[in-house]
From TrEMBL, chain B:
It comes from the Bacteria. CDD domains: PBP2_TMBP_like. Keywords: Signal. It comes from Streptomyces omiyaensis. Residues 416-436 are annotated as: Disordered. The lineage of its organism: Bacteria, Bacillati, Actinomycetota, Actinomycetes, Kitasatosporales. This is ABC transporter substrate-binding protein. The keyword Methyltransferase does not apply. Residues 1-22 form the signal peptide. The keyword Signal applies. Pfam families: SBP_bac_1 (PF01547).
UniProtKB/TrEMBL annotation, chain C:
Residues 1-24 are annotated as: Disordered. The keyword Transcription regulation does not apply. The keyword Transport applies. Residues 103-317 form the ABC transmembrane type-1 domain. The chain crosses the membrane at residues 33-53, 109-128, 140-160, 192-215, 244-261, 300-320. Its main location: membrane. This is Carbohydrate ABC transporter permease. Belongs to the binding-protein-dependent transport system permease family. It is found in: Cell membrane. It is a multi-pass membrane protein. It comes from Streptomyces omiyaensis. Keywords: Cell membrane, Membrane, Transmembrane, Transmembrane helix, Transport. It comes from the Bacteria.
Length: 294, 436, 330
């Protein structure tokens, strides 16, 4: 297996100390970037701790009054907990299915040559170009027709959203996993076959374990895509299936915008993804290294 | 391994099922309990979606107790409501009963998705003459059966800050536009300003310029329903509204980006002296402004007293209730509309939401004769006009509302707003209307 | 293990073709043929269902007069030939003009956003290449914007960009004293820069992540050889790092381009129902032309035009970059 797939970075180790100009550039650029990145995060945290009068008045760097009320109120103003569950179920299921489907497809593309392979890859990748607006309404019509014909409620249900989101992340996942599988020496799965494994067993015995970083990277991507999507969720959900992306709009009502609650809720819904993402980022770099950027 | 295999089988089965069914036709097949349940989409009237649920649920329970019909309530945020109705229309899968903004009536009527309220249907809810005429004027295109029935009524009025008026030495609240500008100039000092607007709120822009248009003798549509945005009257109306900021400077420039009722919170915080609004009392209260701190008078007119024609001073604002034509429980839906428009419910709900009942008999309740609601009730009765009841109303709101927003942005940035620039914007807006 | 596998020496191409040994291949000839298709089936079905069929329906809609009068039964809407396209492309009239303007704005926006994302991402990745104290923390920190859900991040930016109460004007106007009066960021001409800032903030960590991954594929001995030759850090960056990143950049720029050009969520959450003219990105413009004015025919026609444009650009881009790469590799 290639060294990169282990996620072990190969850093240059120059015997000479870097020159002063480089060190200063590094200090300045990284400081500025840190400020840029942290600015909204700071605003989010500090505003979520201010009373409503303060957030609807002039911005203050240091809050003049602190309160935890917004963190209690967010659960009352809208059924945030329900939306949370919906988002977790939808994003979680979409991720699992997307990864499984992508593994199969990537295995076929990476290990077999067959008629139509090029057409398949080009078509799947080109769907990345489709403007969402173009197929929002038609997709919705298809779901409704499926529902009418079979009784499987896709429209307005979590299942419909799962199906949609898993497809959204599919092209990128297939493409990345194909790259990753290509980097795994074929000798490995052939050895497994000599040992009597069928192609599917070889896939799960050999390829999948070896491609773990790539799979994690794809899963993280799929989860984030589903967690953050706004447009389709706003049309395809109702109050029992509404996800966080749409639900958060509930803090700005006809009468008022509860900015402190908006910030508190934004923070609360971000924490699980951000923490998960940061824990898995090591795999992400490794996965991208072997998969996408080769 | 086994678990993976199960997941794989699941995925494959799922996709097979989907392929098998994707080509199926659109058979009509509803749930078995169609006559026992109704789905109702309510609009967001209270201070949050949850508040609305708490207000409506006891009423729905009462309805179930009386009729045995269970109503499934969904409160749809305004940001989603029109899109949800559109998709429901496209697919035929929607609620049984729904609330719509009354200005959408003609647009939605044109789609054919809503049940027309002919004499027979009106009979089922107690007759058309139970409703106030002005409210009925905003339920669909003239000459056609209404697409909805009025549920809550509102109108614009001028709200003013008593203390700020006193401090500025204004003895009597303004009744004409000249007086508004005079008062506004007196109020505008020390970082405070005369009157608030919501420059980036498209619907609010439309409501204001529509009324001003009436005062200039202009309609935004010709009698046969063609857009007519560039008539002298329409241009003058839009310019007059934007001039509050551009020429008279009695509106703070920051208002140009307001779209989420920031002008109300400015008012509640004594930063602006006046606002033209529909039933804001609840919002003022939630912002900590008590009822005796503000006063209310009818919205201004060019001269004299509010009335009809050029003395119009408000649009007919409000919420209508409609029945989705595809409902499988028409009888239940009608019963539900009858229940919601009954005197009892009308009194209770309008009281809670601070609006006026469009039902004549319910209006008699003393709750609607208090000073603030009496102004609205009288405005609705005598000097309010319905927005154009044309199918393109919704497009009109978007394109003209956007034009006004852009003009406010110009004014706020200190660029001149002239008759020519207003006319150019309106001309561009008119060209974006569907060609008919 | 590897030894047994390699015993039948084969050409790489053949090896790729059939993974099964000769014995199994003969026995299950038919299964072997069908297997790749079976593996692809779920992906194919899903792509057909969610992407391709709806897209074809969208293309069909672009030839229809699909206004509010017909949306109830779109199949019965009258065919309108190329009307929707000619309306969209008539640059003398308001509809075509504003579409063209929105298109040009989007191009400008995309070039700037992709350029800045790439620049920041590459700079950060290269500066973090060598180990120093705090490197791990910064690396994690820089990924935060990418990990935050779009709506949560963009709402916060909208809050910061408010004219009277926002942080940006508090800093620029109140604290630094720039300008006579506070600037508008969510309406008017500045909205373009506001949108660009949010887009770069959100997008550059992806470039950073990708370039970081790309850097790990550069063999260490190249640097060692260079430093033995006396090349300093700057020289190494210029002569080793940047050239080696070329294949990564080729993919990265394309992906960023497509995502930025089609971005809907950022302007939608930042500006709401009507984007200011200066920041009227094409996806939001199309949304307005279809959903808010209820004219799905024209909206679809505009989407089809957008799709064609993206296809052409991507095709040309791939043609140019891969050809350039081949000749330079040889």
């Amino acid at each position: 297996m290639s060294e990169a797939a282990h996620g072990r970075p190969s850093r240059p180790r120059s015997p000479m100390a870097p020159p002063r100009s480089f060190l200063w550039t590094r200090r300045i650029v990284l400081t500025l970037l840190t400020g840029f990145v942290l600015l909204p995060v700071y605003v989010m945290i500090s505003s979520s701790l201010k009373p409503l009068e303060d957030v609807s008045g002039k911005f203050e760097w240091i809050p003049s009054a602190l309160t935890l009320r917004p963190y209690a109120d967010i659960w009352e103003t809208i059924p945030l907990a329900d939306y949370f569950v919906n988002s977790i179920v939808v994003a979680g299921a979409a991720t699992v299915f997307s990864v499984v489907v992508a593994i199969f497809a990537a295995y076929a593309v990476s290990r077999y040559s067959f008629r139509g392979k090029r057409v398949f890859t080009v078509t799947v990748l080109s769907t990345q170009m489709f403007p969402g607006i173009l197929f929002l309404l038609p997709l919705f019509l298809i779901y409704v027709n499926i529902g009418n014909a079979t009784g499987i409620a896709l429209f307005g249900s979590r299942e419909g959203l799962i199906l949609t989101y898993l497809t959204f992340s599919l092209p990128f996942s297939i493409w990345m996993l194909t790259g990753y599988f290509d980097s795994i020496p074929r000798e490995l799965d052939e050895a497994a076959k000599v040992d009597g494994c069928g192609p599917i067993r070889a896939l799960f015995r050999v390829i999948v374990p070896a491609a773990r970083p790539g799979i994690v990277a794809v899963a993280v991507y799929a989860f984030m895509t589903a967690w953050g999507e706004v447009l389709f969720a706003s049309v395809m959900t109702n109050d029992t299936t509404r996800t966080l992306a749409v639900g958060l709009q509930g803090y700005s009502t006809q009468n008022d915008v509860y900015w402190n609650q908006v910030m508190a809720a934004s923070l609360v819904v971000s924490v699980p993804v951000v923490v998960g993402f940061l824990l898995l980022q090591r795999y992400l770099v490794a996965g991208l290294t072997a998969g996408a950027v080769k | 391994m086994r678990r993976i295999r199960a997941a794989v089988t699941g995925a494959v089965t799922l996709s097979l099922v989907l392929t098998a069914t994707a080509c199926g036709g659109g058979g009509e097949d509803g749930g078995g309990q169609a006559t026992k349940t109704l789905t109702y989409w309510a609009s967001n009237q209270g201070s949050s979606l949850e508040v609305d649920k708490k207000v409506l649920q006891p009423e729905l329970d009462e309805f179930e107790r009386r009729t045995g019909i269970k109503v499934k309530l969904e409160v749809v945020p305004w940001s989603d409501l029109l899109n949800r109705i559109l998709t429901a229309t496209t697919s035929g899968q929607g609620p049984d009963v729904l609330n719509i903004g009354n200005t959408w009536s003609a647009s939605l009527q044109a789609t054919g998705a809503l049940l027309p309220w002919d004499a027979k249907n009106f009979e089922a809810i107690g007759g058309k003459d139970r409703f106030v005429d002005s409210a009925l004027g905003s339920t669909g295109a003239p000459g056609k059966d209404p697409a909805a029935v009025p549920l809550y009524s509102m109108a614009y009025a001028l709200y003013y800050n008593k203390q700020m008026f006193k401090d500025a030495g204004i003895a009597k609240p303004p009744t004409t536009w000249d007086e508004v500008i005079d008062a506004g100039k007196k109020l505008t000092k020390d970082g405070k300003s005369g009157i608030g607007v919501e420059g980036s709120n498209l619907s609010n822009n439309i409501h204001q310029v529509f009324v001003l248009g009436k005062q200039h003798g202009a309609d935004f549509f010709t009698a046969d329903g063609k857009p007519d945005f560039t008539s002298d009257g329409a241009v003058a109306a839009v310019k007059q509204y934007v001039d509050l900021m551009a020429t008279h400077k009695i509106v703070a420039p920051g208002n140009a980006e307001y779209a989420q009722n920031q002008s109300l919170s400015d008012f509640a915080k004594d930063k602006t002296g006046m606002v033209l609004w529909q039933t804001p009392s609840q919002t003022f209260a939630s912002q900590g402004m008590s009822e005796d701190e503000w006063g209310v008078v009818p919205a201004p007119v060019p001269s004299g007293k509010p009335g009809t024609g050029t003395a119009t001073n408000s649009m007919v604002a409000g919420i209508n209730m409609a029945v989705f034509k595809n409902t499988k429980n028409l009888d239940g839906a009608l019963k539900f509309v009858k229940f919601m428009t009954s005197d009892e419910e009308q009194t209770a709900l309008n009281k809670t939401y601070g609006s006026v009942p469009p039902v004549k008999t319910a209006q008699k309740d003393p709750a609607f004769s208090g000073p603030s609601l009496a102004v609205i009730r009288d405005t609705l009765a005598s000097s309010a006009a319905a927005l154009p009841q044309v199918p393109e109303e919704s497009q009109f709101e978007t394109v003209v509302g956007t034009a006004v927003k852009e003009l406010f942005a110009d004014a706020a940035a200190g660029r001149p707003v002239t008759t020519e620039s207003v006319k150019a914007k309106l001309d561009k807006a008119q060209q974006q209307m569907p060609k008919k | 293990m590897t030894q047994t596998a390699v015993t039948p020496a084969r050409e790489p191409a053949v090896r790729k073709a059939t993974p099964g040994g000769a014995r199994t291949a003969r026995r299950s000839g038919r299964r072997r043929l069908a297997l790749p298709y079976l593996l692809l089936l779920p992906a194919l079905v899903l792509e057909l269902l969610v992407h391709l069929v709806p897209m074809l329906m969208g293309v069909a809609m672009s030839f229809k007069e699909l206004t509010q009068f017909y949306i109830r039964d779109w199949a019965s809407a009258p065919w309108s030939g190329l009307d929707n396209f000619s309306v969209s492309l008539d640059f003398d009239a308001a509809v075509g003009q504003s579409l063209l303007k929105s298109f040009l704005t989007t191009c400008q926006f995309t070039v700037l956003s992709v350029g800045l994302c790439w620049l920041l991402g590459t700079a950060a990745a290269i500066l973090l290449q060598e180990n120093f104290r705090g490197r791990g923390v910064l690396r994690t920190l820089f990924l935060v914007p990418y990990a935050l859900p779009v709506y949560a991040a963009v709402i916060t930016w909208a809050f910061m960009f408010q004219r009277d109460n926002g942080l940006i004007n508090h800093v620029l106007h109140d604290q630094l004293g720039i300008g006579d009066s506070p600037a508008f960021w969510l309406i008017g001409d500045n909205s373009f820069w506001a949108l660009l800032a949010v887009s770069v903030w959100k997008g550059w960590p992806f470039a950073f992540l990708t370039v970081m991954a790309g850097l790990q594929n550069i063999p260490r001995d190249m640097y060692e050889a260079a430093s033995l030759d006396g090349a300093g850090v700057w020289k190494q960056i210029r002569h080793i790092t940047l050239p080696s990143l070329r294949p990564v950049n080729q993919v990265l720029v394309l992906v960023l381009f497509l995502w930025t050009f089609n971005d809907f969520n950022t302007p939608f959450v930042l500006f709401g129902e009507a984007a200011p003219e200066a920041a009227d990105l094409i996806s939001l413009h199309i949304y307005q032309s279809s959903f808010q004015t209820w004219n799905f025919g024209t909206g679809s026609a505009m989407s089809v035009l957008l799709l064609l444009f993206l296809l052409v650009v991507t095709g040309v881009y791939l043609l140019l970059t891969t050809r350039g790469r081949k000749t330079s590799d040889v």
